[in-house]
Amino acid sequence: MSTPPRTTRAEDGAPAVARMTGDASARATGPRPRAGDLSLYAAGSVGMGLWVTVPGLLLLYFLTQTLGVPPFLAGTTLLLPKIIDIVVHPLLGSLSDRQARRASHRRTLLTWGLLLPAAWIALFSVPAGLTGTTAAWWVGGCYVAGNLLFACFQVPYLTTPSDLRIGYHERTRVFVFRMAFLTLGLLAAGVSAPVLVASGDRSAYTRMALLLAGPLLLSGLLALTGVRRLTGHCGFRVPGRRAHSVRHDLKAAWRDRDYRALLLSYLFTGTTTHLFLAALPFYTEYELGDRKLTAVLMGAFLVPATLVGPVWMRLSRRIGKQRGLLLAQGVFLAGSLALLPGRVLGTAVITVVVVLMGAAFAGLQLFAFSMLPDVVAAAEERGVAHAGAYTGVWTATEATGTATGPYVYAALLAVAGFVSTADGHTTSQPSAALSALLWGFTALPAVLMALAVFFQRRYTLDEVAGVDREAGA
């Protein structure tokens, strides 16, 4: 008979203890999560991957090449909804903690996220009479609504590993499952969406949204079931009895040195990867001369990301999450610079480089997200954090990176004089714009990732964990 699940409270006055490994927090304190439950939970990442990938990959291109929105306005249209997210996510994190104290679960807020498919369909169903500025208003409004619903799902969903009574390596195992399903969602959306909208007309984008709305809803329903089963089997760590204001939670998060380092590193990592997604269609069309290569290179990027999660997991047990993350960041940085020669490399070489960057992308996601519960666990032992609050700040930072990458690229194109078109037509571009879209896809991501490495090297929690890494196995 399995051990009964436990629901415990993280007491606000708990004394600080040795960090992570070698103490009780590093060892599994409840049943090992079952593979079936993890699969159901991780299935929610398919929908998350869809929502993150398709707008990140196609929305800037959709605005500038189909709706006739100027590049700078298009970038602003993608940025402003994310600014709202910066405010909303920490609020939802604190709200999630309050709901967890009251009900011993976070599923109420998560359920609201099941309405996301409605905003998803509206986002890509721009009425025929809208173009330019009016089209930007439509897309921006739908993006705000979709991001709010996505946040309702994302914050409690990503807090779940911190809620479970499991140890250091088991938290990584949860995210190996999540990364496998996330990359499946990224792959399915990243390859199918460009194919479905290859004609470039509005109706193609609407059909694409309708076809992918079903998987988006199904993944949310499966995740809800998985969260219920995981917390029922492994136990649920209810946040401390004493509630704090959002302002207090934000201050506590920022004062946490390891959390701050991880957060800033992930901000620049997310900015880099989302810039890559937004710039890829421009790179394939104007540098490589074949827009159909967008789907090919997305497949090359995401297929290895789907497969290498277990490899990164084994590497984590040998060298730790910190070194693994730094390695992944270094590979992505080098890959970005390797693409700088552009078409002279040839499609085969470019594809190989993108494959390596995709493998690195899996490590970027796996290690950053599995280190977040480690930081939360260490902070809660000191009585200074609640999982929902930390996760809310984290997802707000992720949203910032999601918007900043495309915005920076769009601004670069606007300064260089890039010419927008409508209904998918191709037009000649000035030489400055062609140079900008190439350097913005290669050198700029390398610089941003170097900043991510700079901040990540200030993370120290894993150094202590490395003293006795196998204690949490």
Core attributes:
disordered C terminus; 17 helices; 473 residues; 2 strands; mainly alpha; Growth Hormone, Chain: A
What does this structure look like?
It comes from Streptomyces laurentii. It is found in: Cell membrane. Its main location: membrane. By secondary structure, the chain is an all-alpha fold. The protein has a single domain, classed as Up-down Bundle (Growth Hormone, Chain: A). It is built from 17 helices and two strands. Strands 1-2 form a two-stranded parallel ribbon. Helix 1 packs parallel to helix 6, helix 4 runs antiparallel to helix 5 and helix 5 runs antiparallel to helix 14.
Architecture, CATH level 2?
Answer: Up-down Bundle
* CATH T-level fold name: Growth Hormone, Chain: A
Number of domains: 1
Helix coverage percent: over 70%
Q: Tell me the name of the CATH homologous superfamily.
A: MFS general substrate transporter like domains
> How much of the sequence is in beta strands?
under 5%
Strand order of the largest sheet: 1-2
Element-by-element helix/strand order: EHHHHHHHEHHHHHHHHHH
- The level-1 CATH class: Mainly Alpha
Spans where pLDDT lies below 50 across 5 or more residues:
1-28, 465-473
- Give Rg in angstroms: 22 Å
Number of E-state strands: 2
The coarse silhouette is: globular
Given the helix and strand composition, which structural class is it? mainly alpha
> How far is the first residue's CA from the last residue's CA?
22 Å
Largest sheet: 2 strands, parallel
Number of helices: 17
Mean pLDDT figure: 82
